[in-house]
Amino acid sequence: MLKKVVLAGGTGFVGQYFENHFRNLGYEVRIISRQTPHIGWEDKEGIRETIDNSDMLINLAGKTVNCRYNVKNKKEILDSRTNTTEVLGQAIEQCENPPSLWINSSTATIYRHAEDKPMTEEDGVIGSGFSVDVAKAWERSFFDFRLPKTRQIALRIAIVLGDGGVMTPYRNLVKFGLGGHQGSGNQKFSWIHIEDLFNIVLFLRKNEELSGVFNCSSPHPVTNRELMAYLRKNMNKRIGMPCPTPMLEIGAFFMGTEAELILKSRWVIPERLEKEGYAFEFHHLDEALHQILMNSN
Questions:
Q1: Could you tell me the CA-to-CA distances from 288 to 70, 155, 293 in Å, in that order?
Q2: pLDDT digits over 29-67, tens only?
C-alpha cells in the first residue's frame, strides 16, 4: 500500500512543488484546500478520513501576506492560519490511526527586525507588531494540541526561492531596470531554496526523535543590497535603480502590498537543523539563483 501524505493548503507555490515531489517518491498525495476538486475545509469528516492512516500531515495553509494590512485582510491572514490549524488538530484527535508526524508552517518573521545579530531558535528574540502577533498565535494554536501518537514540528520558514513565488516580482524589477537595493539595502534577507525546504521535511520525517521549532533558512543570509546584485548578475543586467524608503512605501501602497515585506531585516540562522546534521543543498544565494534562473528559462 502506498504511504499517504496529506498537504493542507497544498495548491500554492510550495504545495504544488511538494505534491509533485512526493508523488515522484511514490506517495499517495491528498490535498485539503478551498479549491475544487480537493477536500474542502468545511468537510470535517472528509478531513478526518483523509488524515486517518496517513504517514504525514503538512499544513501550508494561509492567506498571502502580500496585501495591504487593513482590518479585513488582517482578520483573514490570522484566521486562515489559526482556524485551519485548529481544524487539523481536532481531526487528528478523532483519528483511529493518526499520522506519526504533523508539520505546520510558521514564519521566520516571528523574530524581531535584526541588523545586529542572527536569530536562532534558542537565542532569537521574538519581535512585535501585526506580523509577529500572527506568527505567535499560529504557533500557539499548533502547540496547544497534545497528541501522544503524533510528533509536532513548526517550521519557521524564511523567503522560499524557486520557479515562481517571490522570484516573479524580483525578476520583473531587474528586467525593467529597477533592480537596485531597496531602502537602505542593509536589511538582511533570509532565504531558502524550495528543494532544501522539501529535503528538510524528509529529514525531519526520518529523524523520529525530533520535534518542536526549526528555523528553515539557508545558513548564509545576505543583505538586500547583495540580493539585488546577485539577481542583476544572474540576469545579465548591469544597472538597477535603487528605491529609497519613501518611494518604496508609495509604490507598495499602489501595488496593494506592504513595504514591511521588503524593509524588515530578517536575519535567521538554521542552528537546530545544522546541529542535527541536515546538509544543505544550496548554501549560497548566488548558486541558488543561478540554478533557479537556468531551469526557468
A1: 34, 20, 9
A2: 999 998 888 999 999 999 999 999 999 999 999 999 989
Q: Which of 107, 69, 73, 129 has the alpha carbon at shortest distance from 258?
A: 69
236-260 pLDDT, tens digit per residue, is 998 999 999 998 899 888 889 898 9
Grid cell for residue 21: 515531489
| 31 beta partners | 7
Q: What's the CA gap between 7 and 187, in Å, rounded?
A: 33
Residue 14 backbone dihedrals phi, psi, to 5 degrees: -70, -45
Cα 21 from Cα 18, distance rounded (Å):
5
Q: For residues 11 and 164, is the Cβ–Cβ distance under 8 A?
A: no
Q: Which residues pair with 28 in a beta bridge?
A: 4
- Predicted local confidence at residue 297, as pLDDT: 58
Q: Within a 10 A sphere around the Cβ of 149, how many other Cβ atoms? A: 10
Q: What grid cell was written down for 58?
A: 503538512
- The CA-atom distances, in angstroms, between 244 and each of 109, 161, 241 are 22, 24, 10
Q: Which is nearest to 222 in space by CA: 186, 264, 269, 188?
A: 188
Residue recorded with cell 546541529: 275
Span 269-276, average pLDDT: 98
Which residue reads 488582517 in cell numbers? 74
Write b or e for each residue in 88-114: b if 16 or more Cβ atoms lie within 10 A of its Cβ, otherwise e: bbebbeebeebbebbbbbbbbbbbbbb
SS (HEC) of 99-166: CCEEEEEEEHHHECCCCCCCECCCCCCECCCHHHHHHHHHHHHHHCCCCCCCEEEEEEECEEEECEEC
Q: For residues 224 and 262, is the Cβ–Cβ distance under 8 A?
A: yes
